[in-house]
Amino acid sequence: MLTIKAETRQEKGTNVSRRLRINNKFPGILYGINKNSILLTLDHNAIFNLQKKSEFYNESILLLINDKEHKVKVHAIQRHSFKLKLLHIDFIYIYD
């Protein structure tokens, strides 16, 4: 099982996302049924290297948010149209 470290963020919007991307990070979100959405900040290089593996899309992922574990799956990824950059990622909870 792949493990990804993330941090929560309070702010949202275009300017905040732009500042994150300048600092080699990018925004994401974790959501699910009957759960509150969590806004995330992720390290671009770490995720970019992991997303090349087939397990990233096909298997569950352990998402560590401020040292709390969440079992998730990738729901959607937004990529830049011509640069090799990730712009945003959506995770969904996995219910056992």
UniProtKB/TrEMBL annotation:
Record organism: Buchnera aphidicola str. Ua
Role according to the record: This is one of the proteins that binds to the 5S RNA in the ribosome where it forms part of the central protuberance.
Question: What range(s) does the Large ribosomal subunit protein bL25 L25 domain occupy?
Answer: 4-91
Family in the record = Belongs to the bacterial ribosomal protein bL25 family.
Organism lineage? Bacteria, Pseudomonadati, Pseudomonadota, Gammaproteobacteria, Enterobacterales
Protein name, entry field: Large ribosomal subunit protein bL25
The record's annotation in HAMAP family points to: Ribosomal_bL25 (MF_01336)
The GO annotation for biological process reads: translation
Pfam families linked: Ribosomal_L25p (PF01386)
Tell me the GO molecular function terms. 5S rRNA binding; structural constituent of ribosome
According to the UniProt record, one GO cellular component term is: cytosolic large ribosomal subunit
